[in-house]
Design brief:
Layout (H helix, E strand, L loop, with lengths): L1 H25 L3 E2 L2 E2 H5 L13 E4 L3 E4 L2 E2 H7 L11 H10 L5 H13 L5 H8 L7 H12 L4 H7 L7 H28 L13 H9 L4 H13 L8 H10 L5 H12 L7 H16 L6 H13 L17 H13 L4 H19 L11 H10 L8 H22 L12 H8 L9
Antiparallel strand pairs: 1-2, 3-4, 4-5
Helix pairs in contact: 4-5, 4-19, 5-9, 6-7, 6-9, 7-9, 7-13, 8-9, 9-10, 9-19, 10-11, 11-16, 11-19, 12-13, 12-19, 13-19, 14-18, 15-17, 16-18
The structure holds carboxymethyldethia coenzyme *A.
Length: 441
């Protein structure tokens, strides 16, 4: 182990330095239509996917089938007396492409209620995991346990025709969606409330029932869940969770396998796990400074210290967005409406004043503005949900709507196995030296 690791370290150090030099000198050179920099640096700016459900604009943010978040908050049906959209309506919109009526949304809610029974073996598997297990690990394990129910995999084994793929994907997706709130709430109650499980309320909407099963019956928390489930659902196709679900699904892995793979990507700190990192980072700041309402200068020093330790400021930056994320703004509006004086929310708003100029001054951060994760935790803490390790599970429940709607479309359109071409640095060097031709030239 020791020798292998040391030899690897030596090789990796040389290769990293070499690649840095190659990109500095030749980063703009193209292999086919794509620059060397794009190939080595996460394929930024390459359009290579079709995703029908939503489209992200760098300046304006996400639009779901053409509708922005403020438009969705206005146009999608709500519970009687409610002000936030029912995410079941967004699922309908992503799938059908049209704003649903109240009856359409009720239909989706009814279907999800009817299919929500989680088989007992899933709970047994969760119960067998150590209590210290991260909630996202439990969640993905639970999704894998649910895979025993996949009609896609059963029908495929029986020789399903290609033309039926979308239908089996549709059936699996709706059942999976219906069961996720129960799975998520079970994990939360087991880990943080001594396993005191709360029975589902079969009459409630998808998010209201989730709030109820988590143990939060305040109507405002239910409204928060509806907003949360709506705004986290989809962010076009290239983000890690959506792309992974699509990629794994392209091998005709069933929706359970594909969604679980995507959620393992969501569990990364540069993606969905950033929502837990934000609150952890703020709690640590409060503890270090001994105050729950730090000043502008105190926050500035804390941010600079974070950066000097070689860490990122969680909740800030984005691979595509170049403005404040409208999902952040929607949550800020919710906070200003219901909890204007909340100290944690006020801190989040103060961080918004402090961080962008500091990140901008580094000269390398392409987007210094807050993303969706910069705000979500503070709203949850306000209602008493302080267990930040659980936050990404809520993100995952919501994200199911977008990635599964897309997966159904993938199979309906017969999109093929995804298989881009890769290169080796050895080949790139030969090509730069004129010794070899690279594919695509
Ligand atoms: N704090 C400190 N440095 C940051 C930064 C931040 N918030 N955002 C970007 N940078 C740095 C990058 O680490 C990179 O540094 P190096 O060149 O030294 O490696 C440099 O700025 C350029 O990065 P970029 O092109 O601006 O950003 P990327 O597209 O590579 O990455 C993202 C995007 C989101 C991973 C990055 O901004 C980040 O790490 N943010 C913090 C984590 C976070 O909030 N993630 C959640 C995103 C939303 C979601 O998916 O849920």
């Amino acid at each position: 182990m020791g020798i292998l690791k040391e030899r690897f370290r030596a090789k990796a150090d040389i290769a990293s330095a070499e690649i840095k030099t190659i990109l500095k000198e030749h980063g703009g050179k193209k292999i086919g239509e794509v620059t060397l920099s794009q190939i080595y640096q996460g394929m930024r700016g390459i359009t290579g996917l079709v995703t029908e459900t939503s489209l992200l604009d760098a300046q304006e943010g996400i639009r779901f089938r053409g509708y922005s978040i403020p438009e969705l908050r206005e146009k999608l049906p709500k519970v009687p007396g409610g002000t936030e959209p029912l995410p079941e309506g967004l699922f309908y919109l992503m799938l059908i492409g049209e704003i649903p009526t109240e009856e359409d949304v009720q239909h989706v809610t009814d279907v999800l209620q009817r299919k929500s029974h989680v088989p007992n073996h899933v709970f047994k598997i969760i119960d067998s995991m150590p209590i210290a297990t991260h909630p996202m690990t439990m969640f993905v394990t639970g999704v894998m346990a649910l895979q025993t129910e996949s009609s896609f995999s059963k029908r495929y084994a029986q020789g399903m025709s290609k033309k039926d793929y979308w239908e089996a994907t549709f059936d699996d997706s709706l059942i999976l969606l219906a069961r996720l709130p129960r799975l998520a709430a079970y994990i939360y109650r087991r880990k943080y409330h001594n396993g005191e499980d709360i029975t589902p309320d079969g009459m409630m909407d998808w998010s209201g029932n989730l709030a109820h099963m988590l143990g939060f019956n305040d109507d405002k928390f239910k409204e928060l869940m509806r907003l949360y489930m709506t705004i986290h659902a989809d962010h076009e196709g290239g983000n890690v969770s959506a792309h992974t679900t699509h990629l794994v699904g392209s091998a005709l892995s069933d929706p359970y396998l594909a969604y679980a793979a995507g959620m393992n990507g969501l569990a990364g700190p540069l993606h969905g796990l950033a929502n837990q990192e934000v609150i952890k980072w703020i709690f640590e700041m409060q503890e270090k400074l001994g105050t729950d309402l730090p000043t502008h200068d105190q926050i500035e020093n804390y941010v600079r210290q974070t950066l000097s330790e070689g860490k990122v400021v969680p909740g800030y930056g984005h691979a595509v967005l170049r403005q404040t994320d409208p999902r952040y703004t929607a949550q800020m509006e919710f906070g200003k409406k219901y909890m204007r004086e909340d100290k944690l929310c006020r801190t989040v708003w103060k961080i918004y004043e402090v961080v962008p100029p500091i990140l901008e001054s580094l000269g390398k951060v392409k987007n210094p503005w807050p993303n969706v994760d910069a705000h979500s935790g503070a709203l949850l803490v306000h209602f008493g949900m302080k267990e930040y390790e659980f936050y990404t599970v809520l993100f995952a429940v919501s994200r199911a709507m977008g990635v599964l709607a897309s997966l159904i479309w993938d199979r309906a359109l017969g999109l093929p196995l995804e298989r881009p071409k890769s290169v080796t640095t050895e080949q790139v060097k030969k090509w730069l030296n004129g010794e070899d031709e690279i594919w695509g030239e």
